[in-house]
TrEMBL record, chains A, B:
PANTHER family: METHYLMALONIC ACIDURIA TYPE A PROTEIN, MITOCHONDRIAL, METHYLMALONYL-COA MUTASE. Belongs to the SIMIBI class G3E GTPase family. ArgK/MeaB subfamily. The lineage of its organism: Bacteria, Bacillati, Bacillota, Bacilli, Bacillales. InterPro entries: GTPase_ArgK (IPR005129), P-loop_NTPase (IPR027417). It holds the Pfam family MeaB. One of its GO terms (cellular component) is cytoplasm. Signal peptide: none annotated. This is Methylmalonyl-CoA mutase metallochaperone MeaB. GO terms for molecular function: GTP binding; GTPase activity.
Length: 319, 319
C-alpha cells in the first residue's frame, strides 16, 4: 500500500483511510504499521479547517474554492469531522452529489466523515487520515465540520488555518453557534454576498469586524478579519485564498506555524494518554460496578469527592 | 473542630481551611474526616463567582456589596482563586487592608487565595473551603478571581451565579480579557459609573448588551444582561443584589439551579479521577524516563502517536 499511496493513488488512499477508521484490532495494527512507514513523507500541506452553521453554504464554498485550487495545480483532500453522525446516522459530505464537480476532478480527494465512535475517536481518525493524504501528495487539506458542538474545537487542534463561514443576519446566526467559535477563527467569510444580499453582507462583515476587534486573535501575530464572498457566483474566493497564503507566509516567518504544529502533536500525545488511562479505568469491571453508587453518594452529599476517589482507587490498585 | 465550625466559630473555620489547604498526608486525612462529618450541613448558600480585569475595582465592589449584605443579616464568606499566586508569590485578597471594614464585620469571613499548587489543586481546595464555610453557617459565598487565565472557567464550575465586573472603555478592556469569559457570566456590571464616567458607563453597558444578544447565555432560561454600578458611591448595588436573588429564584423554580449543582459534583468527581489517573501515570518512574523521548519522536514525526501510547502503556502495565 505504501508505494501506491506515495504515488498518489486515490483508490488505495481511500482503502488506507478505511483501514485507519476500522475498529478491528488486526486492521488497526496494519493501519499503524502503514502510518509509521509513511510518516517521513508527511507534514507538507496547508491544513485548513472550515466550519459554519448549517445553511452557510459550506458545500458550495468548498466545491468552488476547491475547484479553483485544483485548477491552479494544487492537490486537494477534503475530510470531514461530524460528531453528530454517530447519533443521527447521517454524515456530512456523505452525499457525494453535493460536490459533484469537485469529486470528479483528478486533483481532488473527498472523504465523508468517519461514522460512529466518540469525539476522541473521530479526532484520531481525522488526524491519521490527514497523514495519509499528505503522504499521497495532497498539498491542501480541508477539514470540514458543522459548527454546532465540540467539533470545531477539535478541528482547530488539527489545522493550521481555521475559516468560519457565516451568512448575513449575524444576530440570529450567532445565536445558533457554539459560544467561543468566533475566537477560534483566523478568518470569517460572510458567504452569499450576491445580488440583493450584497449590501447586507457588507454590514454583517462590519459587525463581525467589530466583534473581532474585541476578542483575542486565534493565532499569535495574525489579525483575524471578516470578508465577504459568494461561492455561487465565484466572488471573493481569490481574495480569501490570498488571505490564507498570507497567513501561511506570516506564520512561517514568525515560526508560529511550526510551533503550533509541535504543540498540536504534543497535545495529541497527552490527550491520547488521557484517553487510554480513562478507557482502562472505566472499563475495569469493579470500577464499573461501584462508580454509579459513588457518583450517587457524591451528588447526594453523602460522601466527599476525595473519599470517593480514594475508595475507587483502592479497588483499582488491587486489580 | 466539627462543633465549633457548626457553631460558626470563624477562628476554627480559618484553621479548618488551613487544614484543607495543607499538602501533608496526615493533615489531608484529618481534613477529609472533618469534611465528611460536615457534609450533611452544607449546600445551603448562594455561591457567587466574581471576576474582572485588574483595575475593575473588585475589592471595592466586594467590600461595598459585602457590607450591604452583612448589614441585611446575611453571613458572607469571601474566598479567592488565584492561579497566578503560585508564580508571582503574591495573592489576591492577601492585602487585608483592601477590605478593611468588611474584614472587621462579625458576619464576614475573608480568606486569601491558597498559595501555590496546580490549578486542579486550587480547584479542590476552594471547593472544600466552600463546604467548610457553608457548614459554619455562611449563606452567601463570594469566590473572587482575576479574569486573566483559566481561573474563571474553574470558578464557573464552583458557583451558582457568575458576575463579571468591567469598567468603561470596553474595547480595550475586552482585549485584556481571556476569550470566552463574557459567555460565562450571568450578569455583567460596569463599575465606576459615577461622576463624569457615568455617561460613558451607560454606553459601555449598551455595548455589552449588544454582544450578549449574540452569545449563548451561561445559564439555561436566564438572560444575561449588563448593568452599571458604582461600588465607591454605593450605586446600583441594590439592583445587582436583586438580579442575583431573581436569578436564584428563577433557576430554583426551573430546577436548573439544582441540576447545575448535581452536574458540578459529577464533573468534580470525574475530574478528580482524571487527575488521579494522570498523577499516577506521570509520576511513574519508567514513564518519566521515557515520556520525553517519545514526545520528541512524535514532534519530529518519527513515531506515530498511537505507537508512542502503546509503547508507554506496555511499560506501565508491567509495573
Amino acid at each position: 500500500m505504501k508505494q501506491a499511496i506515495l504515488a498518489g493513488d486515490r483508490k488505495v488512499l481511500a482503502q488506507a483511510v478505511t483501514l485507519v477508521e476500522s475498529q478491528a484490532a488486526d486492521k488497526q495494527k496494519q493501519a499503524q504499521q502503514l502510518l509509521q512507514e509513511l510518516l517521513p513523507f508527511t507534514g507538507n500541506s496547508i491544513r485548513i479547517g472550515i466550519t459554519g452553521v448549517p445553511g452557510a453554504g459550506k458545500s458550495t464554498f468548498i466545491e468552488a474554492l476547491g475547484l479553483k485550487l485544483c485548477e491552479k495545480g494544487h492537490r486537494l483532500a477534503v475530510l470531514a469531522v461530524d460528531p453528530s453522525s454517530s447519533v443521527s446516522g447521517g454524515s456530512i459530505l456523505g452525499d457525494k452529489t453535493r460536490m459533484e464537480e469537485l469529486s470528479k476532478h483528478p486533483n481532488a480527494f473527498i472523504r465523508p466523515s468517519p461514522s460512529g465512535g466518540t469525539l476522541g475517536g473521530v479526532h484520531r481518525k481525522t488526524r491519521e487520515s490527514i497523514i495519509l493524504c499528505e503522504a499521497a501528495g495532497f498539498d491542501i487539506i480541508f477539514v470540514e465540520t458543522v459548527g454546532v458542538g465540540q467539533s470545531e474545537v477539535i478541528v482547530r487542534e488539527l489545522v493550521d488555518f481555521f475559516l468560519l463561514l457565516v451568512i448575513t443576519g449575524a444576530g440570529d446566526d450567532l445565536q445558533g453557534m457554539k459560544k467561543g467559535i468566533i475566537e477560534l477563527a483566523d478568518a470569517i467569510a460572510v458567504n452569499k454576498a450576491d445580488g440583493e444580499n450584497e449590501r447586507k453582507a457588507e454590514l454583517t462583515k462590519k459587525e463581525y469586524n467589530q466583534i473581532l476587534a474585541m476578542v483575542q486573535p486565534a493565532t499569535q501575530g495574525w489579525k483575524t478579519r471578516a470578508y465577504t464572498c459568494s461561492a455561487l457566483y465565484l466572488k471573493g474566493l481569490e481574495e480569501l485564498w490570498e488571505v490564507i497564503q498570507s497567513f501561511v507566509q506570516t506564520t512561517k516567518v514568525s515560526r508560529v506555524f511550526f510551533e503550533r504544529r509541535k504543540l498540536q502533536s504534543k497535545q495529541w500525545l497527552l490527550q491520547s494518554i488521557r484517553d487510554e488511562l480513562e478507557a482502562r479505568f472505566y472499563t475495569n469491571h469493579e470500577i464499573r460496578q461501584l462508580l454509579q453508587e459513588y457518583m450517587k453518594q457524591v451528588v447526594e452529599g453523602k460522601v466527599t469527592v476525595t473519599q470517593a476517589v480514594e475508595a475507587l482507587f483502592s479497588i483499582y490498585e488491587v486489580k
